[in-house]
Amino acid sequence: MFQLTKEPIDIQPLIDEVSHRNAGAVLTFLGTVRELTNGKRTVQLEYHAYESMAQKMLQRIGDEVQEKWPHVNIAITHRLGVLHISEVAVAIAVSSPHRKDAYDANAFAMERIKEMVPIWKKEHWDDGTSWIGDQQEKKGREEAAHG
Amino acid sequence: MVEILFFAWISDKTGESRIKVSVDGYSVQEVKSWVEQKYQLGTGALSKTMTAINEEFSENDDRVQHGDTLALIPPVSGG
Question: Does A140 contact B46 at a Cβ distance shorter than 8 Å?
Fold first, then answer.
């Protein structure tokens, strides 16, 4: 199960999806909306996606996990739209016969999400908004402006 | 015609989410330059932007063909 949703995420269906009789470990990760980042207070977040491609890339991460850890089952759901503090933005559930693979596969999946899934987060603060992940882009624009 | 998709800051800055334009046969780099000029983003503003042709990541020297969809993908920040 690899999906995007505009509704609050319930982790239980993901756990049910990956659980099976030969699993010795079921591990879940919830990425939640943090209020303070470097002292700056987030009011809310907004996630946008290139939905069809994001869906495809989540599936691909699932395929990569299966290839690296053939005995791991994985399910991922990412939330879109406006989220408030402490809401769940992303949920990953994995199962495996032994716990080490579950920890490794779960961490791997999260890293890959941050690298290759076309989803963007817009931070809303008391005093403005900004797309996160655009530092490199800003640098590009500044170089262009000065060059 | 090629459909170009805009997201995040690029969408805010251009005021567009998708456009159809005659850039058939252009390289990805050429399309980026075309977009930078048309929307006055500044030369090189899209140099760090990733791209995808028909939902697969592409390189600057890949070429777009009639009917393709080219997405401009600023650094992602999911999770």
Answer: yes
**Statement: A2-146 belongs to CATH 3.90.360.10:** no
- A34/B contact by beta carbon, under 8 A: no
From the candidates B48, B50, B72, which should be mutated to test the interface with A, based on the most A CB atoms within 10 A? B48
Return the domain boundaries, chain A.
2-146
Helix (H) or strand (E) holding A82: strand A81-84
pLDDT in tens, A40-82: 999 999 999 999 999 999 999 999 999 999 999 999 999 999 9
DSSP state, residue B41: -
CATH number of domain containing B51:
3.10.20.30
Nearest alpha carbon to residue A90 among B78, B73, B74: B78
Q: What is the pTM of this model?
A: 0.91
